């Protein structure tokens, strides 16, 4: 992650302590899973709005 930042890439990263890979899929209605999903979707929306090339 630090190498990406040093290279000038925008990086937004979160660690969810105590959570294992796929926790948001296994327990999607847990509060931490909802927070992680919201974080992911907000980042995706930002990328679509700012980095997508319009298609005709």
Spell out the key features of this protein.
3 helices, flat, 56 residues, mainly alpha
Provide a compact summary of the structure:
It comes from Proteiniclasticum aestuarii. This is Alpha/beta hydrolase fold-3 domain-containing protein. This protein is mainly α and 56 residues long.
Account of the 3D structure:
- It is a single chain.
- By secondary structure, this protein is an all-alpha fold.
- It has one domain (2-51).
- It has 3 helices and no strands.
- The protein has helices at 2-6, 23-26, 31-51.
- The radius of gyration is 14 Å and the shape is flat.
- The model has no long low-confidence stretch (mean pLDDT 92).
- This is Alpha/beta hydrolase fold-3 domain-containing protein.
- It comes from Proteiniclasticum aestuarii.
